[in-house]
Amino acid sequence: MRNNCLIAALLISTCGTANAAVDDATRKLARDIFKELIEINTVDSVGDNTVAARAMEKRFLAAGFARQDVQVLVPEGHPTKGNLVVRLHGSGKNKPVLLLGHLDVVEAKREDWTTNPFELVEKDGYFYGRGTVDMKDYDAVMVATLLRFKQTGFVPSRDLILALTSDEESGPANGAEWLLKNHRALVDAEFVLNGDAGGVTTVDGKAVEIGVGAAEKLYADFEFMVTNPGGHSSRPPAENAIYRLAAALGRLSASPFPVELNPVTRSFFGALAANPGTPGAADLKAILRDPPDSKAIARLSEDVRYNALLRTTCVATRLNAGHANNALPQTALAIVNCRILPGHSPEEIRKVLVGKVADPKVAVRYINGATGKVSDLAPGQAGLPPSAPTPAVLKALKTVSDSLWPGAGVTLNMSTGASDGKYTVAAGIPSFGVGEIAIERGDERSHGKDERVKVASFYEAVDFFDRFVRALTGGQQP
Hints:
By secondary structure, the protein is of the alpha/beta class. The chain is 35% helix and 22% strand.
C-alpha cells in the first residue's frame, strides 16, 4: 500500500524541468539510422537480422566505442539471427539498465502497400515503411541516444546496455531469451527499459495519455483442425470439413472471454475515468464497480482497444482447406491467435477453446512458436503478474512528459500484444515499457499495411528518450 501511494503521488506531482531538446544534427543522425534499418529486410522468411546488427555495430565502432563493448552475437545454426549488445560505461554509482528492442519485423507484401514497405518513404507528414511503428523507430531512437551520449561525453550514473535482438515477432531463435540463457552477464541489469511497449496517445494531434508499460499479455497460437475422408463435392454439407470448421469459429467469435481487470488495467481505466473529457468516462467508472456494469462492458467492448484490455482475445488469423474445386476437403485448418491476460496459461486457454468450440471433431492443439511443432497440450505456466515501475522511472518520465506533452496524464498500461519483456521479467529483471512515441488514436498500423508514424512524432521521441535517460540516470556532462 505504501508503494502504491508513493507511485500515485509521483504520477500527479510536478517534477522539475527537462533538459533542452536535442540538436538538429542528432535528429538527422536518428533519421539516417531509421532509414538504414527500415531498408534492411529483417522478416523471418527472407530477411537477415545479422546484417542489421552489423550495420549498427559499424556505427558504434566509428563513434569510438571500444571493440569489447560492441558485440554481435549469433546463435549457432541461425546465421541470420544476430543480436547486437552495446555497453556505454557510466560512473558505476548504480547498477546497469538494459535498453531493449528488436530488429525483426513482420512480413509485408509489396502488392498490399501503396509504398515499398522496405523503403523509408516520407510523405504527407508521415514516415512509411515496415517497422516504422514496430519497432525500428525506437531502435533508431535508442541507437542515436547512445551515440550522442558518447559524442558529448555524457557519463550516466550507471552503465547503459543496449540489446537489439532477433525473432521477437516470429522465428526459431528469439534473441532476448537466448542472450539471457547464454550471455546473461552481458545483459544483466537492475531493470529494463523496453522500447517495444508504452506510448503516447493523441486525439486530434493533442497528447491525452502517456502510457508506461507495466504488464503485457501472453502470446499463444492454436491450430483448429477438422479431418474428413473427403469425396465428391455433391455430398451433403454435413460432410464438409470447411462447414464444420466455420461453425466452430463462429461459436468462438460469439463467445468472448470474460472481463477481468488487474491492478494495471484498473489503474489505467481509473485514470481515464477521472478525466471528464474522456469519451465514455461514465462507462469507464461503471466497469470499476463491484460488480462491474454489464451494459457499460458491452458498450466499451465495441472499442477494439478497450476490448483487448478487458479480456483475453482469441481470433482466427489464417485458413487453409481443400485440394480440388470439385472435391470435399479432407482437411480444414485454421490458426487462432490468442493474447492471454496475465495470470492465465496457454493450456488453460486451450481447454477453454475446446469448450467454446463444442465439437469433438474439431481438434484444438497448441503451436510452439519457436519450433512450429503442434502438440495436444500447451504450456501450463501462466503469464507473469503485473508489476508497477519503480518511483525513479516514474519520476523521470513525469519530468520529461510534462515538458513535451503538457496536460497529458501518465498512466500505467498493459500491452495488448506481447514483447520480449516476458523473458526479462521471467529472468528476474523488472521491465518497464517506455517506448513513448505519439500515435493518433485509431491510426495504430503496426503489423498492417502502410505502417506509418508521424515525422514530428519520431523526432519528438528522439528528444524524449535523450531527456528521459538523462533524468533517470542523473549523470554528468563535461
